[in-house]
Amino acid sequence: MLTLLILIGFPSAFGGNIHKNISVHQADTLIRNHEGKKDLVILDVRTPGEYAAGHVKGSINLDFWAEGFADSVRKLDRHALYLVYCTSGVRSSGAVKKMRREGFSILYNLKTGMIGWRAAGMPTEKSNP
């Protein structure tokens, strides 16, 4: 457990690239460890409508199926730490693969997506589409 907390809390201390699937509990720990910092980007790759209906607080939305997704990803900081999620983990897994090919260093995929997040009773917030 301590190793997990160290890797999630301080990934850059170990150098190299980190690309892994994580659970809701691990994602929550990651978010809490980076609260108040600007080094974590929570990336929701669902449609704008899905995002508006409920998303992880502080997340940004880039629709995986949108025509400009690849261009939008290229504009992101490749050295930031990313938590990527979708509804079930399928689109986010695809997004992580694309981001890896673009040279992103630290990527965490929420393997159960919003389904798992909500099932665990984790908070969401809504916004206007």
Helices, strands, pairings?
Blueprint: H1 2-9, E1 18-22, H2 24-33, E2 40-44, H3 48-53, E3 60-61, H4 69-74, E4 81-85, H5 90-101, E5 106-110, H6 113-119
Parallel strand pairs: 1-5, 2-3, 2-4, 4-5
Helix pairs in contact: 1-2
Sheet with most strands: strand arrangement: 1-5-4-2-3
Number of helical stretches of at least 4 residues = 6
CATH architecture: 3-Layer(aba) Sandwich
Strand content: 15-25%
CATH topology description: Oxidized Rhodanese, domain 1
Arithmetic mean of pLDDT: 89
Q: What is the general shape?
A: globular
Distance between the termini: 39 Å
Low-confidence stretches: 1-14
Structure description:
There is one protein chain. By secondary structure, the chain is an alpha/beta fold. It has helices spanning 2-9, 24-33, 48-53, 69-74, 90-101, 113-119, and strands at 18-22, 40-44, 60-61, 81-85, 106-110. 38% of the residues lie in helices and 17% in strands. Strands 1-5-4-2-3 form a five-stranded parallel sheet, with helices on both faces. β4 (81-85), α5 (90-101) and β5 (106-110) form a beta-alpha-beta unit. The longest helix is centred in the C-terminal third of the chain and has 12 residues, at 90-101.
